[in-house]
Each structure stands twice: as structure tokens, then as C-alpha cells.
Write a structure and sequence with these properties.
about 280 residues; six-stranded mixed beta sheet; five-stranded mixed beta sheet; 4 helices; disordered N terminus
Length: about 280
């Protein structure tokens, strides 16, 4: 059974390499009469399409069984640059490093502080003859936060407002969120007892995890001093902000035109009074 497994794995590697001449040579030379079960092979049950956010360390896990005296290398496909060979790093970019615990079959390529330009195909290679290689795709994305609603929000003094910040892009770990008013971070109560928070805190945060992360900033009994720029600042995504304008009385559109309409109305009133006065005087005479 072990021999058959090794036979199948080696045949698969040779066929996937696309080297028909080498494959034919192995078959013609009766290679499979030797101890095929000791030939290196890849463990395919590992994630090979990896997504990470900008700045969040990425790991590409390559597992090679029965490596023997062969060596494992990591190659960047776009420029065929050798990143690592064995446990040594062959690039001046110190963000790249191979992690291999002692006597482990795992050869993990670690990429610190990845950027959008690091997206692409990376190959885990074994220096067999012909060469064995297994491709991995790295997707580096810039997670973005957004606050639902308009970028300028007008609210009435004494009412309540909720700012909902949503992060629905990025890898599984979306980190945490801080809320700022201007340059100052908001000191929000810890969620020890939701009933206590709702009873005592005028400004509080509610976190919801679904397919992404939603942070809701609730402000009750809004004061005029609550006006300002509010920023949602995640640890793994670009920040976003909204301007909150707290007003007294009517809708801001009415307020903006209030002063302009006052003068024409007063003038019209004076004119009307003057006309009536003239009419009465004339009739009295």
C-alpha cells in the first residue's frame, strides 16, 4: 500500500511539472522498481489561497513529507527571485523569513508587514530531479472601514444618534476599533453589564460580529458640545470619519435661510403698514 501511494504521488508530481521528457525517462528507466516510498512529496491538505490585510503578518505553510537529503526553497513567481533556501534567507528584504521547527516537515514562509505589491504567486520547491514545486497565492488587501449614512450628520439637541462603523473586508482577524472625537480617543465603558451601561453611560459602544465587524457608537441626550468630527479607527483597516452637527430647533436647511428671509418679510410688512396708513389719512381728510 505504501509503495502504491508513493508511486501515485511521484507520478502526479511528474505530470504536474509539465516535463514530459523527464516523465518518459523515469518510466523508461524503470524508476518505479526502486524504493519509491522514500521519494519526497507535498502534503496538499494545507491552505494555498491565503488572504491577509496590509500590515498583518502572512504565513504560507508548505509541508514536505520524506524530504531526506533534499532542500526546500521559496520562490517569488513574478520575478523568479529566490527568497529562502533551506533555513537561510536569500533576499535583502528582511520581511521574508522561513520558519521550520526542528525536525519538522513544515517549511513556512513568513511575510511581515505585507503590502499590496506583495500579492501574487509564491512557489515552494524541492530540488529533486525533475524539480518539484507547489504554488501558493497570497492576496494582500487593504481593509476599509465605513460609517453608514452621510458624511455630515445633523442631529437635534436632546435626541439620540448612532454611528455605525462597518469593516467587512479582510482576513478573519479584524482586530478592534477605537472611536475618536477630533484628536481625542473616547473613553468608553467596558461591557460588563449591558443593563448598567444603558442606564449610566450617555456615550457607549456596541460590538457585533457577523461576516465582519460592526462597531456602533450610541450617544443619548445629545448636547451641543457633542458636535465635532468622529473617527472610527480599526487596528487592521483604514480609518473613516463623520462630522456631527448638533443643532437647536429646526432643520439646518431652515436655519440657513432664516436670516435671509427675515429682511424681505420685515420690509414687506413695513410697506403694507405704510400703504394702509396713507389710505386712511386720505379718507379722513
Amino acid at each position: 500500500m505504501e509503495f502504491a501511494r508513493g508511486y501515485f504521488l511521484l507520478l502526479l508530481v511528474l505530470l504536474c511539472s509539465g516535463d514530459a521528457e523527464s516523465t518518459s525517462s523515469y518510466l523508461d528507466e524503470g524508476f518505479f522498481n526502486s524504493n519509491v516510498s522514500s521519494y519526497p512529496y507535498f502534503e496538499f491538505n494545507v491552505p494555498r489561497n491565503v488572504t491577509t490585510a496590509v500590515g498583518q503578518t502572512a504565513f504560507l505553510h508548505c509541508r514536505v513529507e520524506q524530504l531526506g537529503d533534499k532542500a526546500v526553497s521559496w520562490i517569488r513567481k513574478r520575478d523568479l527571485h529566490i527568497l529562502t533556501a533551506g533555513i537561510l534567507t536569500y533576499t535583502s528584504d528582511q520581511r521574508f523569513q522561513v520558519i521550520r521547527p526542528d525536525k519538522s516537515d513544515n517549511w513556512t514562509l513568513q511575510i511581515k508587514f505585507p503590502q499590496l505589491r506583495d500579492s501574487g504567486i509564491y512557489e515552494c520547491q524541492v530540488n529533486t530531479e525533475p524539480k518539484m514545486s507547489l504554488p501558493f497565492r497570497l492576496n494582500v488587501i487593504e481593509a476599509k472601514a465605513r460609517i453608514l449614512g452621510p458624511s455630515d450628520l445633523h442631529v437635534k439637541a436632546g435626541s439620540s444618534v448612532t454611528l455605525a462603523c462597518v469593516i467587512n473586508q479582510g482576513p478573519h482577524n479584524l482586530g478592534t476599533v477605537l472611536w475618536y472625537k477630533g484628536d481625542d480617543v473616547l473613553e468608553l465603558p467596558q461591557e460588563t453589564s449591558q443593563n448598567d451601561i444603558e442606564r449610566t453611560a450617555r456615550i457607549r459602544e456596541e460590538i457585533e460580529w457577523t461576516d465582519g465587524l460592526t462597531s456602533r457608537l450610541h450617544i443619548t441626550n445629545v448636547h451641543l458640545s457633542d458636535s465635532g468630527n468622529y473617527s472610527c479607527v480599526p487596528t487592521t483597516a483604514a480609518a473613516t470619519s463623520v462630522n456631527v452637527h448638533v443643532i437647536n430647533g429646526e432643520h439646518p436647511a431652515a436655519m440657513q435661510h432664516g436670516n435671509k428671509n427675515t429682511a424681505p418679510l420685515s420690509s414687506l410688512h413695513c410697506t403694507l403698514v405704510y400703504s394702509i396708513s396713507v389710505f386712511i389719512i386720505k379718507h379722513i381728510r
